[in-house]
Amino acid sequence: MGNGGSAHHQNGAHKRPRLEDVAARVGLSTASVSLVLRGVPGPSERTRQRVLKAAADLGYQVDRTASTLASRRSRLLGVMVDIHRPFHAELVEHLHTAAEEVGYDLVLSTQTRTRDEHTAVETLLAFRSEALILLGPTAPADTLATLDNKAPVIAVGRRISDAALDVVRTADDDGVGQLVDHLVGLGHREIVYVDGGKGVIATDRRRGYRTAMRRHGLDDHIRILHGDHTEAAGERAARKLLEGDSLPTAVLTYNDPSAIGVLAALARAGVSVPGEVSVAGYDDDALSRLSCFNLTTVSQNAEEQARHAVTAAVERLDQDRTEPREVVLAPRLVVRGTTAAPA
Amino acid sequence: MGNGGSAHHQNGAHKRPRLEDVAARVGLSTASVSLVLRGVPGPSERTRQRVLKAAADLGYQVDRTASTLASRRSRLLGVMVDIHRPFHAELVEHLHTAAEEVGYDLVLSTQTRTRDEHTAVETLLAFRSEALILLGPTAPADTLATLDNKAPVIAVGRRISDAALDVVRTADDDGVGQLVDHLVGLGHREIVYVDGGKGVIATDRRRGYRTAMRRHGLDDHIRILHGDHTEAAGERAARKLLEGDSLPTAVLTYNDPSAIGVLAALARAGVSVPGEVSVAGYDDDALSRLSCFNLTTVSQNAEEQARHAVTAAVERLDQDRTEPREVVLAPRLVVRGTTAAPA
DNA sequence: ACCAGCACTTAAAGCGCTTTAATTTGTCCT
DNA sequence: AGGACAAATTAAAGCGCTTTAAGTGCTGGT
Fold first, then answer.
1. Strands (E) located in chain B
2. Which of A124, A188, A331, B297 sits most deeply, having the most CB atoms within 10 A of its CB?
3. How far apart are CA B164 and CA B241, in angstroms?
4. What was the pLDDT predicted at B14?
């Protein structure tokens, strides 16, 4: 009971100023003030100045909810991220700048261990996002396709079999291929690959390894060890190699953590890297840059992916594009200290 | 020119259904439908069922912008994060669950290298956040105090000198103290500290080191090396130690990356850890858990901090609390493999 | 029969803004 | 002075929802 509202601002704080307050202050209509504040041509220079001043004086800030409702446009791109993944952080950073350049804002929603993709996306829609940029979605293609009916979906970082969606990703097979080329160029022939399990991405990378090995006529040296996306998997794989009678001259892994597991196991066994064995990962995690690892790896080029994602969204929203587009970028080899010519 | 709007949904997609569409479908007013959908008591059970079914059939989803406007309540907590910091990721995860329990939603806004705190906070306010939960804010106390006039501010993870704000943080001095106690308990006396530079947090940790050393009567062994928050700083500090005539038996650092720098430098010099020297970090980063480091460190207890932050916000918003409150939690020692009794 | 009282339901007034059509003001020409 | 035309301004109608006061039917008591 008691009084009506229960939301109180505090200290001497007043209600937030509205357009009407600004208008009253300069003796104009809310329409004019709205025009000025949005930079729409029309109002005279004098009016413009006075309105801007009044708005600043009052600390006026537009209420997004109201303008969204009135204009039927939120100019909002909904971004689903997994906040635990460092690479997503980088993408978000670039998405922000790319979106700003084209006059859109971002609203972020994260999936976590206790909050699934579905919930995250619902939140984005509740905010009236005009398009959905999904970073590393794991939902099946048809679920994504259904979503696309509510708002254009741009899937980033993952291949989507045959749904009519926009996709922005890097060529994972090519990335592993570049690593193989790099190693072969250094003189390696016995190059093993530690797998990443069963996922679209893992499949592509594995294929990239196979293809590249064949291209170099190293069919007989193709050797794939079981693994997944963890450091532990790398360690297991390395132990298996150490048990064998002879070590390969190079080890490629599905991702950086796995490579670090390999590195750790080799170090414990007293095997020098890159002296005796070269090692490379994938993703260019912050991890791989640590000087104690200094891992050769492949970078996914966050900035370019972010730009393409935003462009795709804008084309859908403002340029009537309706046919889905897939943008496949070339990853970039990052040579650091864990690869060298074989002994 | 052309047709009016430029925002097009695609495929066979229709306009998103409104409350009115649901109402029409069951032959009721929008008022009743709104009541049912919000779980307000009143509507009959029969009505309830029919409305729920109709809403589900149409795929109706409430439009937050409209309900916020109409109800004058967004039930939104604005969270400013630095998306690059893994610890923030953990906090966000727990903030989500804590907020959900009390019927609030979260809107995230990140600061990045190219997007400052101010921008991030403006975004949160534009969404009409009712309270602002700022993770690791760096703005000066009076800036935060001003902000607090617009919406209650809860600063997380940082001590704020004497502004009238809510603060939730862990006792950094106590954390380092726990590490010193742990080491002294193992028999160490020569414990050096690698500093974190000039920041509120670094100051607290340094003080914690000094105080704890004195408490153990080790005033003469207090030794603080210059450093910052990076791995490189740890390496530099360790090299300095290696140049001296005798190594200390233990090294404490401002944070985990710095500790990893120390570890790397010691490893290169052939010094065994924890055999010859014990090392410990601070923050319990994902890094420190990697088996190749297995670093003893201090955990900040993300879950508890998140809960307190949400509670503080709710007290301000729904329970008329106006006096600021500071919640200081005890950090938790995490003993792993880099500390042991001295040789 | 009549009305009190209850359980439901709804009409209507906004929320703070945008947008369109209409109005006012100002300028320049004849 | 009068009118045509452009420039500047604004009235008013929503956007999709919530909320309050006002209904509408019932039931049952008398």
1. 76-82, 105-111, 131-135, 153-156, 166-170, 191-194, 223-225, 250-253, 278-280, 297-299, 326-329, 332-334
2. B297
3. 43
4. 58
CA A185/CA A177 separation, integer angstroms: 12
Name which of A1, A65, A229, A314 to mutate to probe chain B: the one with the most chain B Cβ atoms within 10 A of its Cβ.
A65
Q: Identify the residue whose tokens are 């985990």.
A: B256
Contacts of B96 in chain A (CB under 8 A): 110, 112, 114-115
Helices (H), B163-297: 172-186, 200-215, 231-243, 256-268, 286-289
Q: How do beta strands B297-299 and B332-334 pair?
A: antiparallel
Neighbours of B107 (CB within 10 A): 21
C-alpha neighbours within 13 Å on the C-beta side of residue B102 = 22
Are the C-beta atoms of residues B232 and B206 closer than 8 Å to each other?
no
Cα–Cα distance, A250 to A278 (Å, whole number): 4
Length of chain B: 343
Is it the case that residue B2 has pLDDT exceeding 80? no
Partners of B334 in the β-ladder:
B297
Separation between the CA of A239 and the C1’ of D2 (whole angstroms): 100
pLDDT in tens, chain A (343 residues): 333 333 334 333 457 899 999 999 999 999 999 999 999 988 999 999 999 999 999 999 999 999 999 999 999 999 999 998 888 999 999 999 999 999 999 999 999 888 899 999 999 999 999 999 999 999 999 999 999 999 999 999 999 987 789 999 999 999 999 999 999 999 999 999 999 998 889 999 999 999 999 999 999 999 999 999 999 999 999 999 999 888 999 999 999 999 999 999 999 899 999 999 999 999 998 889 888 899 999 999 999 999 999 999 999 999 989 999 999 999 999 999 999 999 8
Chain A positions touching B92 (Cβ under 8 A) are 83, 110, 112
Separation of alpha carbons A5 and A15, rounded Å: 13
Q: Which residues contact A329 (CB under 8 A, 6 or more apart)?
A: A168, A169, A170, A171, A301, A304, A305, A308
| Cα within 13 Å of Cα(B275), Cβ side | 5
Grouping H, G, I as helix, E, B as strand and the rest as coil, residue B112 is strand
Which two structure tokens, joined as six digits, stand for A244? Answer: 């064998």
What is the pLDDT at residue A14? 57
Q: Domains of chain A (ranges plus CATH)?
A: 19-62 (no CATH), 73-169+302-327 (3.40.50.2300), 172-299 (3.40.50.2300)
Q: Per the CB < 8 Å rule, is A127 touching B64?
A: yes
Residues of B in contact with A81 (CB under 8 A): 83
DSSP reduced 3-state for A325: coil
**Type of residue found at A262:** V
Q: Check CB contact under 8 Å for A86 and B88.
A: no
The bridge status of strand A297-299 relative to strand A332-334 is antiparallel
- DSSP strand pairing (A76-82 vs B131-135): unpaired
Of B133, B140, B135, residue with least CA distance to B160: B140
Nearest by CB to B61, from A9, A73, A125: name it.
A125
